[in-house]
Amino acid sequence: MTIDWENKKPAFTVIDVRKFTSSFLPMILRKAQQVDLNNGICVVQSFEPKPLYSALKDLGFEHSTEKVSDHEYRAYFYRTEMKKITYESGADLPFKPTAILNYKVIDDLLAGTVVDFWELMWEKEDAAIDLKTKLLLSMSNAMGASRFRQATRELIKAYSLGVTVAELDELFTLFAWNQGIGHFSSEIGPSPVFGAYKLIKKREQEGLDRRKIIDEIMEAFGDKNPAVDPLYRKKTGQ
Question: What is the pLDDT of residues 9-47, one digit of tens each?
């Protein structure tokens, strides 16, 4: 399909993220917000960067992607509207799928397969289960398997989409019921996911705005926190 901005693509700023070992998504979002109307950027990656599509669409971008080879994709994003980034739109949803980069280390084609599976789970059009409910279900599954790193990320994403403290209260009560008081006391209580929940509850009781709570929770329990970040980090933080 021919798009009416096809002839403008050679002038797009090119951002090659193939050698990135950390999440490139926040950086792309920052750069995208600086793009003027009727201008664009080109993102080069070794797998099709599908997680960018919906995020940049929410910022007013159209896209087209070219597969140059099995190890090079060029995704072109052209801005047709000026939209502000918000958690509610999903464009600035906390915790992009950073772990995909772990699969890229193994093999680019494997990373592409994981991206396809991620898209099926989280970007499916006309999904029967809304995103907030999916995140709570995913969080509950992670808690059952003691995957507290994943559970923390799902909790914060769900909270950014409007999950209430009352809902979280009932969810943690269920964890105590289903997993037992001993497990809750020794494993869940000291976990980052319970810490994030406590901070959210405390700040809401103090009357803090949800967006400010999210900013604070991301500072304490974001990717800077080694118990939450899914990527390997050297002790030096590199």
Answer: 999 999 999 988 777 777 888 899 899 999 999 999 999
One-letter amino acid at 90 equals G
Strands 40-45 and 72-79: antiparallel
Q: Using alpha carbons only, what angle is made at residue 17 by residues 13 and 23, rounded to the nearest 5 degrees?
A: 120
> Residue ranges of the domains in the chain?
1-126, 128-221
Q: Which phi-psi region, left, alpha or beta, contains residue 231 (left: φ > 0; alpha: ψ -120 to 50)?
A: beta
CB neighbours of residue 51 within 10 Å: 21
Neighbours of 87 (CB within 10 A): 17
- Cβ–Cβ under 8 Å, residues 123 and 54: yes
Measured distance CA(6)–CA(98) in Å, rounded: 30
Q: What is the pTM of this model?
A: 0.82
DSSP string, the chain: ---TTGGGGGGSEEEE-TT-SS--HHHHHHHHHTPPTT-EEEEEESS--THHHHHHHTTTEEEEEEEEETTEEEEEEEE-S-----TTTSTT-SS--TTHHHHHHH-HHHHHHHHHHHHHHHS-TT-SS-HHHHHHHHHHHHHHTT-HHHHHHHHHHHHHTT--HHHHHHHHHHHHHHH-HHHIIIIITTSHHHHHHHHHHHHHHTT--HHHHHHHHHHHHSTTSTTT--S---TT--
